[in-house]
Design goal:
mainly beta; 22-stranded antiparallel β-barrel; 46% strand
C-alpha cells in the first residue's frame, strides 16, 4: 500500500473483505496479508486518502491510494445501513481520527479533544458542581447532553448514572461519559449531526456519536504525555493575600497520560483480539483574581471568601478495552464478536468554603460553643495570628475556614457479544446483546457533621452513598441489498429489547443525620443519601424499525426509516425520517432530511432524590430534590414526566471544488417539545408543600419537569484543503465552524405554580433560560493550519468562542424575587440587573512534531498560547458583589475554560 503521490508506504490503512467484513491493516512498511476467495472485493480506507474498492488479484498486489480530504472522505458506518463515503451520505457525518488529534494538543481526554475538532460539539469543564466536576457531559448542536446517542461499534452505549444538578450546565440532564472509553482503543469517531431517533431510538434527537474500535493485528502502539498549566495572571499564588486561599504550584493541573494497544490473531481464519488501556493522573488547579481593590481597579474583585479553593478538581482514571472477532467455521459466513471494557475514575474536588466568622454553626464546637480547631483541615486567614475560638470575638481578619472535599469513585463496565453473518440468498443478519453499568459513589473528605458537637471534630470522612445505572440491550438486525432494483436498494429491519435499572443507595447515618438543632447536619459539601432517598426502579421497552435506502438513479439517493417503540412506564411512540442526496455534478452533492424524534425521560430524572446544600447569592441553603413520584411533587402540581418530542430538518451540500479541497455546509432546525429540566427552588410560600418542607427541615424543594419548548437554528461549515508542494512537503488547512441560535418558545408552567410573576420565575427563571441558551456559544469557529516537511511538522489551532450572556443570583434580591439585581459599589441604593457578558474570545494553540524513526514520534506545544481568560463574571461598577455565578469563582464555566496557558509534550511508539 503506497501513497500515489509520494510513493511512500501507507501505515495503518484498513483493508476489509466486502463480503464478510473480515480484514486487517497495513504495517509501518505498507504491507498487509489477507486470505480471500477468487472474485472478492477489498474495501480500503485510511485517514488522509480516498476510500477505494479493489478486486482481489492472486499473489502480490500493489494498491496506490490517492490523497484526499482527511476528515470527510472516509467510509462511515453511522447514518446509513449501507456503508458510504461520508461526502456522499444523505446526512452530515464527521470522521475524527482521535489518535491524530490527541497528539497535537495538551487536552488529555476525548471529550475535550472532540470539542476542538467538531463544529457543533460542545462541553463546559465544570467547577463547584459536585459530581459534575468528575464527569464531562458534552452536547451536539446546542441541545442537552442526553439528547445525543452514543454507540460503540454500532451498538448502544449505556449512560452514566449521574444527573446534573447545582452549578452545572445541562441541569436536570444525564448523558454518556465518553472519557470512560480508552482513547488507545479507538480507531475513529463518527459523528452524525442529524436527528436519528427513527434509526436508532431514544436520545438521538441531536445526533449520534459512533465510536469505532481498533482491529489491528500484530501491532503494538504506546503513547505517553505530560501537560501543565502556567497561568501567570490568575494562579492563586499571585493573589495579594495568598493566605486567604488554598494554593498549589506555579505550574498546576499537571497531568500524566499513558496509552497502550496490542492486537493478536485468533485462529486461522482471520480472527483477532485487540487489547487497549489508558491511565491518566491529573492534578488540581487554583484560580483567583489578584487585585482586591475594587475602588481603583475595574478588573479587581473582592476577596473570594465563598470559594477559597477555586479551580478544577484532581482526577485519577484508568481503563481497559477489548475488541475481538472470530469467523466461525471454514466457510467464514458467520462471525462471533465481542467487545467491552472497564474504567475506574476517582475525582477529588473542593466544595464551597465554610467561614467561622459567618457560619459558626458549620464548625464543631464544645459545650460552651467555642470552636474546636482541627489542624490539617481548618486554616487561618492570617497564619501568624493566634487561633480565636470564641464565635463572638472572631473577625474576618483572623477568621478560621475549611473547605470540604468531595471524593467521587466512578466505576464503569460494559460487555457486548454477538454473531453476524449472511443467510443463503444474501441477507445479512446480526444478533447481539450489550450490557453496561455505571456506579457513582460519593465520599465526604476533610469535612464535619457539625451537629455531632465535640465528637464531630474527629469524624472527618463520610460514606455518602451513591447511585447505579444498569442497561441491557438485545438486538436483532437484518439487511439485504437488491442490486437490480433501480440502481440499488438496501432494505433493513430489526427489533430491540432494552431493560434498564436505576438504584440509589444510602450513605452512613452520620453523613445525613442531624444530632443537634441549630448546627449543620450531615457531611458538609455533599450530604449523604438518606433512607427516604433509597430506590430501586426498572423499566423495559421493545422497539421495531424498518429502513429502505434506494439509489433511484446513480445520482439520486433516497432513504426512509420508521420506528415503533413501547415503554412499560409511559407508553408508545413512533418516529420517522426521510433523507435524500442528489449528485448535481460528480463533485457537488445536495443533501437534506426531515425527521421526528423522541427521548424518553431517564430513570435518573424520574427517581433521583436527595437533600443537598446549595449556595446562592453567598448564602447556603438546604434543598430537597424530589423524585417525580413523591407526594411533595404531586402537591406542587408537577405532572408525571413524559417523553420529549422533536422535529428536525436539515439542508446542505458537499463539494469537492478541486483535488484536495472539499467543502460541506449544512443548515438545520430542531424543535423540541417538553424538554425535561430541573426547576428552580420553591420554598414554604407554596402552601401546598410548606408543611412537608418544614417536617423535613429543608428550606426549598426542586423538581424535574417537562418545562421547556425550544427551537434551535444553526449552520455547520467544514472546509478541508491539502496542498501538496512536492513529495516531501504539504500544507493542511481545516476550517470547522458552527453558528447556533436557540429560542425558548414556551415555558410549561403547571397551574398550581402560576401564582404570580415571582413563582413563574422560580419555576424556570430568565436565569435558567439563559443557561439553556448558553449550552453552546452562538459562534464557534476553528481553524487548523499545519505544515509538514518530511519528518517535521508545525501547526496551530485557532478557536473562536462567541459571546455568552448569563445572569447571577442577585445579592440585592429579597428571597423569592426577580429579576436578579446587585447594587453599585459607589451607590448602594442603586440596583442594576446582574448580567454577566462573556465576550467572544480567540484561543491560539501551537504545536511542533518530529518523527525520529518510523517507530518513534514526538510532539510538544502550548494550548492557549496567549493565556486568554473569559471576562470576569461581574457587573461593571458592581464588583463588590462578585462571585455570584455558578462556580462561585471569578468566572462561570464557559467554553474556553479558565485555567489559562497549558504546556505539553507527548511521545508515541509503534512496533
Amino acid at each position: 500500500m503506497t501513497d500515489a503521490t509520494t510513493g511512500q508506504p501507507v501505515d495503518g490503512a484498513a483493508i476489509r473483505l466486502k463480503s464478510t467484513g473480515r480484514g486487517t491493516t497495513t504495517n509501518a512498511d505498507g504491507f498487509f496479508s489477507l486470505s480471500a476467495p477468487a472474485g472478492a472485493v477489498l474495501q480500503v480506507s485510511s485517514v488522509g486518502y480516498a476510500a477505494v474498492e479493489v478486486p482481489v488479484a492472486e499473489g502480490l498486489m500493489e494498491i496506490r491510494l490517492t490523497p484526499s480530504v482527511s476528515e470527510v472522505a472516509q467510509v462511515v458506518m453511522v447514518g446509513s445501513r449501507r456503508p458510504r463515503v461520508s461526502t456522499e451520505s444523505s446526512t452530515p457525518v464527521d470522521v475524527i481520527n482521535i489518535g491524530s488529534v490527541a497528539s497535537t494538543t495538551a487536552k488529555p481526554d476525548m471529550t475535550s479533544q472532540l470539542n476542538m475538532s467538531v463544529p457543533s460539539f460542545n462541553y463546559n469543564k465544570q467547577s463547584g458542581g459536585d459530581g459534575a466536576d468528575a464527569i464531562d457531559l458534552a452536547t451536539l448542536r446546542g441541545l442537552g447532553p442526553d439528547q445525543t446517542l452514543v454507540l460503540i461499534n454500532g451498538k448502544r452505549r449505556h449512560q452514566t448514572a449521574f444527573v446534573a444538578l447545582f452549578g452545572t450546565r445541562g441541569r436536570g440532564n444525564s448523558g454518556t461519559d465518553l472519557n470512560a472509553i480508552p482513547t488507545a482503543a479507538i480507531d475513529r469517531v463518527e459523528i452524525l449531526r442529524d436527528g436519528a431517533s427513527a434509526q436508532y431510538g431514544s436520545d438521538a434527537i441531536a445526533g449520534v456519536i459512533n465510536i469505532i474500535l481498533k482491529r489491528d493485528v500484530g501491532k503494538f502502539t504506546a503513547s505517553a504525555g505530560w501537560s501543565g498549566y502556567y497561568d501567570h495572571q490568575f494562579n492563586a499564588l499571585h493573589a495579594i493575600q495568598p493566605s486567604q486561599y488554598v494554593t498549589g504550584k506555579w505550574v498546576d493541573g499537571q497531568t500524566g497520560t499513558v496509552g497502550l494497544h496490542y492486537g493478536i490473531p485468533l485462529g486461522k481464519n482471520g480472527g483477532f483480539l485487540d487489547m487497549s488501556g489508558n491511565l491518566m493522573i491529573q492534578g488540581k488547579t487554583f484560580r483567583q483574581v489578584r487585585d482586591t481593590n475594587v475602588w481603583t481597579n475595574p478588573k479587581a474583585l473582592t476577596i473570594n471568601t465563598g470559594r477559597r479553593a477555586n479551580g478544577d478538581g484532581s482526577v485519577t482514571s484508568g481503563g481497559v478495552m477489548l475488541n475481538s472477532e472470530v469467523p466461525l467455521g471454514p466457510s467464514k459466513k458467520s462471525t462471533f464478536y465481542a467487545f467491552g471494557g472497564y474504567n475506574y475514575k476517582y475525582s477529588n474536588v473542593y466544595a464551597y468554603s465554610r467561614n467561622f466568622s459567618g457560619s459558626p454553626g458549620r464548625f464543631p464546637t464544645d459545650a460552651n460553643g467555642d470552636l474546636i480547631y482541627v489542624p490539617g483541615i481548618m486554616r487561618l486567614v492570617d497564619p501568624s495570628a493566634p487561633v480565636d475560638t470564641n464565635p463572638n470575638t472572631i473577625t474576618s481578619a483572623n477568621d478560621v475556614y475549611f473547605n470540604p472535599q468531595e471524593g467521587v469513585h466512578i466505576t464503569d463496565g460494559s460487555l457486548a457479544v454477538g454473531v453476524r453473518g449472511t443467510f443463503p440468498g444474501g441477507m445479512d443478519w446480526d444478533f447481539s446483546n450489550n450490557t453496561g453499568g455505571n456506579n457513582f459513589h460519593y465520599h465526604g473528605i476533610k469535612t464535619f457533621n457539625a451537629s455531632l458537637g465535640a465528637a464531630g471534630a474527629n469524624r472527618n470522612t463520610f460514606n455518602d452513598g451513591g447511585f447505579y445505572l444498569l442497561q441491557n440491550t438485545t438486538n436483532a438486525d437484518f439487511s439485504k441489498t437488491y442490486a437490480h432494483v433501480a440502481s440499488g436498494l438496501t432494505f433493513s429491519f430489526g427489533a430491540e429489547y432494552r431493560y434498564e435499572q436505576y438504584s440509589i443507595y444510602k450513605g452512613e447515618e452520620a453523613s445525613y443525620t442531624s444530632y443537634a438543632a441549630g448546627k449543620a447536619a450531615g457531611s458538609q459539601g455533599f450530604p449523604g443519601f438518606q433512607p427516604a432517598d433509597v430506590v430501586k426502579a426498572n423499566r423495559s421497552n421493545i422497539a421495531g424499525y424498518a429502513e429502505a435506502e434506494l439509489d433511484v438513479t446513480k445520482k439520486w439517493l433516497l432513504d426512509g426509516a420508521v420506528r415503533l417503540e413501547n415503554y412499560n412506564d409511559f407508553g408508545f411512540v413512533n418516529t420517522y425520517k426521510l433523507s435524500s442526496r442528489y449528485k448535481i455534478t460528480p463533485t457537488f452533492n445536495v443533501r437534506g432530511s426531515v425527521s421526528t424524534g423522541f427521548r424518553a425521560p431517564s430513570l435518573q430524572q424520574i427517581y433521583f432524590s436527595n437533600t443537598e446544600t446549595n449556595v446562592q447569592a453567598g448564602s447556603i441553603s438546604v434543598v430537597k430534590i424530589c423524585p417525580n413520584d413523591n407526594p411533595i411533587t404531586e402537591a406542587a402540581g408537577i405532572p408525571k414526566l413524559k417523553q420529549e418530542k422533536s422535529f428536525n430538518a436539515s439542508l446542505g451540500f458537499s463539494w469537492k471544488a478541486m483535488p484536495g479541497l472539499t467543502f460541506t455546509v449544512d443548515g438545520y432546525v430542531v424543535k423540541i417539545m417538553n424538554r425535561v429540566v430541573l426547576t428552580g427552588e420553591f420554598d414554604t410560600s407554596i402552601h401546598a408543600i410548606a408543611a412537608a418542607l418544614n417536617a423535613l427541615g429543608v428550606n426549598d424543594a426542586q423538581f424535574f419537569a417537562n418545562a421547556v419548548n425550544t427551537t434551535n437554528f444553526g449552520l455547520d461549515v467544514v472546509a478541508d484543503y491539502t496542498l501538496r508542494l512536492n513529495r516531501r512537503e504539504n500544507i493542511k488547512v481545516l476550517f470547522a465552524g458552527n453558528v447556533n441560535h436557540l429560542n425558548i418558545d414556551k415555558i410549561n408552567i403547571p397551574a398550581a405554580l402560576a401564582i404570580d410573576y415571582n413563582h413563574e420565575q422560580t419555576f424556570f427563571s430568565d436565569r435558567e433560560q439563559d443557561f439553556v441558551k448558553a449550552s453552546a456559544p452562538p459562534e464557534k469557529l476553528d481553524l487548523n493550519l499545519e505544515y509538514n516537511c518530511n519528518k517535521f511538522s508545525v501547526g496551530t489551532h485557532l478557536t473562536y468562542f462567541g459571546k455568552i450572556v448569563l445572569l447571577g443570583y442577585g445579592y440585592s434580591n429579597q428571597s423569592g424575587t426577580f429579576p436578579p439585581t446587585v447594587s453599585l459599589d459607589k451607590d448602594p441604593n442603586t440596583n442594576v440587573l446582574e448580567q454577566f457578558n462573556y465576550n467572544g474570545k480567540l484561543v491560539t494553540d501551537l504545536y511542533l512534531g518530529y518523527r525520529f524513526t518510523k517507530h518513534i514520534n514526538a510532539n510538544i506545544g502550548v494550548d492557549n498560547l496567549f493565556n486568554v481568560h473569559p471576562d470576569l463574571g461581574a457587573v461593571p461598577g458592581a464588583h463588590y458583589s462578585g462571585y455570584d455565578g455558578e462556580t462561585g469563582g471569578p468566572w462561570d464555566a464557559v467554553q474556553m475554560g479558565f485555567d489559562g496557558l497549558r504546556m505539553f509534550g507527548k511521545v508515541g511508539f509503534s512496533f
